[in-house]
Amino acid sequence: MALSHEFQALTKSFSGFGVDEKSMISILGKWHQDDRKSYRKGCPQFFTQDDRLFEKWDDRHVAFLKHEFLRLKNAVVLWTMHPWERDARLMKEALVKGPQAYGVIIEVASTRSSEQLLGARRAYHSLFDHSIEEDVAYHINNSCRKLLVGLVSSYRYEGPKVNEEIAKSEAKTLFAAIKNADKKNPIEDEEVVRILTTRSKPHLKAIFKHYKEINGKNIDEDLDDELSLDETMQCLCTPQTYFSKVLGAAFQNDADEHAKEALTRVIVTRADDDMKEIKEEYQKKYGVSLSKKIEDAVNGNYKDFLLTLIARGE
């Protein structure tokens, strides 16, 4: 007869991110028919009794489990892809999913180097027989269109030189656009889009420094209602802050599937780049290490794979 601790262990293996395959196989492999029936009757969160008096899987939980079984496969597939192909596919998927996923396009376009983004654009041509620029322009019909087309088209200067006078002037331009937001959405202002989509990252940091000198507040404090602009500025200048927030949202109890998928995306795409800085920012923001959070919230081989990736470079 199955023991209560086995019931608990199996339930745990079905809950959270991923599925604990090893535990599941170990337990289910030795259970007899009566053990499995007892488990079904004792787990109304997974099974409901049919009017014909048999216990059937809840359809919603079956769909949930399919997602969880796929997490490891998706992570492995993304990890083994060429980074250019990976970024191209991530942007294409975001376009298909619609407005809730457009932040992924901002993320890819703004956190990659000029050469990396150019490579992703070339991969997009090969994979989809279109340019990412034309697909973004075609599919996106809201106020984000100009910004997103500009971001995916960008090839930024990556040297250290900054013209402080121009940076100061452009800080005033941003301040004026944000101050007049009640008359015109800043994301539709051509000068705002030009600055964010063409200037180097050191230049943008100088602009934001001057903005604070002008206004007395950081620019992100004035952008609470314009998420796309805020995300763009964070991705360009403080990507570790942006990525730590995305990871934090993935672990929320009410996180939707889009938010949960970001756990795989962020760890796979940043493991070879700035994971050390992201982990430091996550610890600072949430008071717990990213490793500990993964240990507590993630299951099985998926957990082991994520922990292996975030440990690279330590």
Main features:
314 residues, mainly alpha
Describe this protein's structure.
The chain has 314 residues and is an all-alpha fold. It contains 18 helices and two strands. It has helices at 4-13, 21-28, 33-42, 59-80, 83-97, 102-111, 114-128, 132-139, 145-153, 164-179, 190-198, 201-215, 227-237, 239-250, 257-270, 275-286, 290-297, 300-310; strands spanning 47-49, 55-57. A hairpin with a 5-residue loop joins β1 (47-49) and β2. α6 runs parallel beside α13.
What percent of residues adopt helix (DSSP H or I)?
A: 55-70%
Radius of gyration from the CA trace?
23 Å
Spatial sequence of strands, sheet with the most strands: 1-2
Q: What's the β-strand tally?
A: 2
End-to-end distance = 46 Å
